[in-house]
Amino acid sequence: MTAAAEARDLFARIAGVEPAGTWSAPGRVNLIGEHTDYNDGFVLPFAIDRRTHVVAAPRSDRRIRVASTFAAEPVEVGIDDLDALFPSAGAPRVPEWAAYPLGVAWALQDAAAAPSGVDIAVASDVPIGAGLSSSAAIEGATAVALDDLWDLGSDRPTLARAGRRAENEAVGAPTGIMDQMAAMLGRPDAAIFLDCRSLRAEVVDLGFAAAGLEVVVMDTGVTHAHATGGYRDRREACERGARILGVPALRDLAPEDLDRARDLLDDVTFRRVRHVVTEDRRVLDTVRTLRSAGPTAIGPLLDASHASMRDDFEISVPELDTAVEAAREAGAIGARMTGGGFGGAAIALTPRERVGAVAEAVASAFSRSGFAAPRVFTVTASEGARRDS
Ligand code: ADP
Ligand code: MG
Fold it and tell me: Ligand 1 pocket: which of 134, 139, 219, 224 to mutate (most atoms <8 Å of CB)?
C-alpha cells in the first residue's frame, strides 16, 4: 500500500468524517552545504520523491488530534492547551513524534483568525532518521494542510519557519531552516540554492535527467541524534570561532581569512571554522558549475566536501567513509555524506548505467567491514509541499 493510501486508511479509522483534503511534503537530500545553515551560509538541498502524506479535516470543537502509522495511539490536545505544552524545554508532555505536527499547529495558530480543531492522519515513505529529513516532511505536510484548513494564506518561507519553530521549540532539536525550505520549495530536477541569512531562495536546475545521472542514497542505518552531543558541540565551536574572529557569523569569512583564523584559534576550532568557510565556497562553486559546465562537473566539489566533513568537521563515521569510497571506486562521479553526520546517509552522483555497480560495491564493502547491510536506493529531485487532493 502506498503511504498516501495508508494515510487515508488511518484517517478513516480515527475520524468519522470525510477528509477535507490530502497534502504531502517531501524529504530532502542536501547536495552540498553541510553545517553551513546555522552559520548564516549557503546550502543546496533538493526535495526528493519520498513524501509524508497528511489527510485531514476540520472538527467542530477546538481539539487537535494527530495519528501516525508509526504510533499505536492518536494524540489529542486542545488548541487552547498548545501554549502550555510548548516550548517544551526537554520535558515533553506528548510523545515526541506528536510534537512535530502539534508544534506546527502551535506555531501557526496565532496567524489564524479562528483556528478550528482538526483531525490529522500521517503516513510516510521517507526513511526515518536517515538524514533525509522525515522531520521536515511531517512538518511541511502539516503546515500546508493547516494553511489551507485555517485559511492562512501564508507564503512558503513562513510555513518553513513554522516547521523550524516546531522542531526547535516544540521538539527541542536545534536545527537550521534548510530542511523546511527544501521541503517547501522543491522543484523537479532542481535544487534550492538558499542563503540562510536572508532566506533568499533560488531554484537551480540540476540537469541530472538529461545528463543521465542518478543520485544514489546509501543509508548506513547508523542512527544519529541531532538533539545531542556532537551537533551541539559543532554549533558551539562555530559560534566560538565567529566570536573570536569578530564576525556576526562564519558566513562573513572568506577562504582568504583562514590564515588569520589559524593564528587566533585553537586547532580544533580552526578546523571547524575551515570546514564551514570552505563549504560555503563549495556551494557557490557548485551553483556556478551547474550553470556553466553542467552536472557532470560537480563531482570533485562533492568529494572535497566529504573530505572536509571527515577531516575538519569530524562528523563522518567509518560506515559513511566506506560507502563514499566504494561508490567512487564503482564509478560514481562524486560522493559525500549528507545531513548532520554521525551516521545517516551518504549520496553518490552516479551515471545511470553504474547505479547497479555502485549498489553492489557498497553492499560488499559493508559486508567485508562487518557493518550491517546498508539500504541503497536512488532519489529524484521532486516537487515541494503541496495539496494533492
Ligand atoms: P530525520 O529528519 O533525519 O528523518 P529526525 O530525528 O530529525 O530524523 O526526525 C525523525 C523524527 O520525526 C521521528 O523520530 C519522529 O518523531 C518524527 N517523524 C517523522 N516522520 C514521522 C511520521 N510519518 N509519523 C510520526 N512521526 C514522524
Ligand atoms: Mg530531521
Answer: 134
Q: Write out pLDDT tens, residues 261-302.
A: 999 999 999 999 999 999 999 999 999 999 999 999 999 999
Confidence at residue 70, expressed as pLDDT on a 0 to 100 scale: 93
| Residue numbers in the chain where pLDDT is lower than 50 | 227
pLDDT tens across 239-252, in order? 999 999 999 999 99
The pick from 34, 73, 97, 342 for probing ligand 1's pocket by mutation, whose C-beta has the most ligand atoms within 8 angstroms, reads 97
User: Which segments within the chain are labelled E, that is strand?
Assistant: 21-30, 42-43, 45-59, 63-68, 75-78, 117-124, 190-195, 201-205, 213-219, 334-338, 345-351, 375-379, 386-387
| Residues framing ligand 1 (Cβ under 6 A) | 52, 68, 70, 96-97, 100, 122, 124, 128-135, 138, 226
Q: What fold does the segment set 3-204 form as a domain?
A: Ribosomal Protein S5; domain 2 (3.30.230)
**Active-site residue 195, yes or no?**
no
Domain map of the chain by residue range? 3-204
